[in-house]
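Async update (no meeting this week)

Hi team, since we skipped the sync, here's where things stand on the single-chain job. The sequence we agreed to prioritize is pasted below, unchanged from the tracker. I ran it this morning and attached the output directly underneath so nobody has to dig for it. Comments welcome in thread, and please keep replies under the output.
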Amino acid sequence: MKKVSFAAFGGPDVLHLIDAEKPHAGPGRIRVRVRAAGVNPVDWRIREGQVLGAHPVELPSGVGLDAAGVVDEVGEGVDGVAVGDHVFGEGSDTYAEFAVLSAWALMPEGLTFEEAAGYPSVVETALRVLREVGVRPGQTLLVNGASGGVGSAVLQIARDRGVAVIGTAGAANQEYLRGLGALATTYGEGWVERVRLLGRVDAALDLAGSGVLAELVELTGDPRKVVTIADLGAPEFGVRFSGVAGSVPDALAEAAALISRGRLHIPVERSYSLAEAAAAHIDSRAGHTRGRRVVIV
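Output:
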């Protein structure tokens, strides 16, 4: 099978498309014929050697955590899924023709593989940070970096729960945020005042890591009401850094329910081939994403 791999940590040029043996589904796992894989910032962070504690890597290593595909092999002790089922979920080395998943759910009706691959890690992260920031119905949540995959999920899930949302993003993504039910404003000079004009802020999420934690603490009045997934300087401001995943199976089940009810939709901004994995990482690292990026297999 074809698989994207890297033998040394470094830039996108370390990624290579190689021939590899198919993995097999061990106990409690399934193997899928991958149809699409999600592109997440953690993918290039791992490739660069940034997050070895959370994701230990043995070189050479494959790439990718999220995938959607057709069940090809079912491991011992697995029930509720059969060969031929269409699933989306999380596993390892998903930029490949075949991958083993450790958590999965049946794909909601009407969802394409390309769309489904963009949900697993994104929805788990969105649900986790909403839980950790403790925002309640009737309150207002500020989301810094709201137009990407996690931001798109946060806006929709928060609105479904009765939470008002203010989102910051680039000028080109203002209408996109408004379409997801958020009050929108741009980054840049004067952004704090623009947010204040939109209303009171009860809690805030930093999804962009753009050096604004001090301002988010100022707007909320309490560092305990701010959570970041992207700024490692969080402890300096008394802010919580969220980097450890919660229950992926539970997140997938909630994602499937939200999608089926028409309450969650994350568009795919761009698709790449396996051979274009390096370009996918370059674009992901550059940010300014509207929705999701995926690799088509």
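Quick observations from my side:
Residues 120-133 form the longest helix (14 residues).
Residues 46 and 173 are 28 Å apart (CA to CA).
Reply here if anything looks off.
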